[in-house]
Amino acid sequence: MIRTVYYNIIFLLLVNFSLEYEYPEDNTLDYGNLNVKQQIMNLQAAQRSINKKNEDVSDAKYSKPNIKNIPPQLKEDYKHVDNWPTSSKKLGAVSAVALDVYKNVVVFHRGDRIWNAETFDAQNVFKQRTLGPIKENTIITFDRDQGNIINEWGSNLFYMPHGLHINGNYYYITDVALHQVFRFDIKNSTRRPDLVLGDPFKPSMTSKTFCKPTSVVQLENGDFFVADGYCNARIIKFNFKGEKILEWGRNSFSGEISNGPEPPNNFAIPHALTLVPSKELLCVADRENGRIQCFYWSDGKFYSQYHSKIVGDRVFSVDYANDSLFVVNGPEDVRNRDVAGYIFDMNSGEVSGKFGTFLDPHDIAVTPDGREIYVGDLSPDNTGSRIHKYLLNGIKPTITREGDLINTIPTTKLPMRRGETALIVGSIVLLFAVFTVGIAILISKRKRRGNEENEYHSLMTK
C-alpha cells in the first residue's frame, strides 16, 4: 500500500513538471508578408564629410587634446598573432566580434550578403528581401587559444547582420535590414529568440521600433541599451522585459549644416557601445563625428568625450579595459592617416597606444584584463582573414580555469525563468515526498516489530 502511494506521488510530480517546463521551440523565424511603406527621414543621400573640430568643444571633458603632448610615435605594445584562427572556414564581412562568458571568441558575419548602394531605398527599406535570410551559419565561436571552431549557428535567421553583444546565456543581436533587436537565450534555443523588438523590415522610430539599429549592451541587472543607429541617432535604455526606460540623442545629420563643433548628445551614427563599470558609464562610438561619448548609465547624463586628430574623424567601434578605451577608426579621404586600432587613456584623455593596420575594421573586443584584442574587418586581408588577434607584448596568456576555452554553455546572474523555477520546486517537492515516505516506512516497520515483540512476549508468558 505504501509503495503504491509512493509511485503515485512520483508520477504526479513528473506530470506537473512536464506541464510547467517551457521546452524550447526550434522553428525558423517567420517574418511573414509585411507592408514596407513606412516613411521616415531621408538621411543617407548626403552624409556629408564631418570636418567638425570636436576637440574645440569647450564644455566637454577631455575634448581638447594637447597636441604638444602627443608623442611623435605611439607605443605599439600589442603584437599580431599569425595563423589565428587556425580554421580555414571562409567568413563573409565580419560585422561584430564578442567574447562569451568563457572568453571564447564569437564572430557575427554576413555570409554572401553585401551592403552596397542597392541594398536600401531612400526610405531605408531593405530592397533585397526576396533573397531570403542568409542560408549559412552567421555566428561562429572560436576558441581563443588556437582559433578552432567550437560551434556555429544562425542560418536562415538574419538578412543583414550588424551588432552582437553577449551577457551570460544571452546573445543580443541587431539586424539592420530587419530593423530589429533580438535576444537569444542560447541555453534554451539558438533558433527562437526570447525577445524581439522592432517591426521586421519596417524602419520606424517609436519606443519599441528602430531604423537600422547598430549595437546593444546589457547591465548586470538585466537593463540594456540599444544604439539606434543609422537613421534615428539615439540611445534607448530598456529593462529586461523590453520596456523602455529612457532615451536620449539628436541626429547630427538633421537641421542646418554647420562647420562648428558638435555638442554633446549629438550623434552622427552611434555605431557601437561599451560599459565602464568602475564609473557606471555607457560609452558610444559616435562614428562619423570621430569621437567616443560617455554617459552615466543611470540617467544618460553626459560625462565626457574622447577625440584626437591622430585617430581621425571616423570611429567605428569601442571596447573598455583597465581605464582605457580601445577603438578602431575607418577609411577617410585623408590618405596619410592609418586605419588602425588606438587606445585612449580615460584618465588623461590622450591617445596612449596603437595597434594593427586594417582595411575596413568594423568591431573590436578586448579581454577584461586588456591582454588580448580581437578585431573584425569587413574586408579580407592578403591571407583572406577578416578576424584578427593581438596579444600584449606578444605573450600568450596562461589559461587558469579548466574548460575555459571549450565550455559553451554559459551561466548568468539574471533571474531564473519559469521553467527553471519549476524544476527546482519539483525537485524539492520530490525530495520531501521521498523523505516523508521513508519516515512512514520506518514508522511502519517499527510498529510491526513492536507488535511482533508483544506477541512473542505474550506467548512466552503463557
TrEMBL record:
Q: Which Pfam families match?
A: NHL
Q: Which residues bind Ca(2+)?
A: 97, 164, 363
* Biological processes per GO annotation: peptide metabolic process
Q: Which residues cross the membrane?
A: 422-443
Cofactor(s) the protein requires to work: Zn(2+)
| SS bonds (residue pairs) | 211-231, 283-294
Q: What is its EC number?
A: 4.3.2.5
Q: Which GO terms describe its cellular component?
A: extracellular region; membrane
Q: Fetch the SUPFAM superfamilies from UniProt.
A: Calcium-dependent phosphotriesterase
What protein does this entry describe?
A: peptidylamidoglycolate lyase
